[in-house]
Design brief:
Rossmann fold; UspA domain-containing protein; UspA; Rossmann-like_a/b/a_fold
Length: about 200
């Protein structure tokens, strides 16, 4: 994991900061609509005032073969993006503590699982794209019925990444997908429930 800048709240004092007594909730964020919907859902349906939010951004390793110091440098736009996501959280839920984390790796699914364990979160929230039944059947057939860690595009991970995280997370993992603009509500997927419609 590449260390993210320390939030201002943690730099000052030390003894002044009240210990977190609520849950730690990790939300996978990126620039996709699915990830933004998942963040919106978490802020309105899951997060409580005493919880700590960890916004995780996963980036691919840099392809250049320069020295180790340059590999540790992350695109400043990522931190600008995370600052804007943190700001959204603070505007919507000012009483909630928010941290950001950036992880780097080729396989998005295992990185997300590793980070959720490292941060000792009790809930992992991911955005999910709508995938057709045909696509899901082809993916299952191609991988011998196994759920794979890769596959799929962005949106907090494609179907493969999201399914991998749901099946392999040591904490509760929830995939969130907005139903539609006309109907409203969200489709929630967990290890035990698939596409549960939450009208809200």
């Amino acid at each position: 994991m590449i260390p993210a800048p320390v939030p201002e709240e943690k730099v000052s004092g030390g003894d002044d900061v009240a210990p977190v007594i609520g849950r730690k909730i990790m939300i996978l964020v990126d620039s996709s609509l699915e990830a933004k919907n998942a963040l919106q859902w978490a802020l309105t349906h899951t997060v409580q005032s005493h919880d700590l939010l960890v916004l995780l951004y996963v980036t691919k390793p840099s392809s250049s073969k320069q020295d180790e110091d340059s590999k540790k440098e992350i695109n400043p736009r990522i931190f600008e993006f995370l600052a804007s996501m943190k700001n959204i959280c603070k505007l919507k839920r000012p009483e909630v503590q928010v941290e950001v984390a950036v992880a780097e790796g080729k396989e998005k699914g295992p990185i997300i699982i590793e980070e959720s364990k490292k941060h000792d979160v009790s809930l992992l929230v991911l955005g999910q794209k709508k995938r057709s039944m045909t696509w899901r059947l082809i993916m299952m057939w191609a991988h011998g019925g196994r759920v794979v860690a890769g596959g799929g595009g962005g949106g907090g991970g494609g179907g493969g990444v999201v399914e991998y995280c749901i099946q392999n997370a040591s904490c509760m993992a929830i995939a969130v997908r907005r139903k539609s603009k006309k109907v409203g509500g969200y489709l929630i997927t967990t290890k035990r429930q698939k596409d549960f419609w939450l009208l809200a």
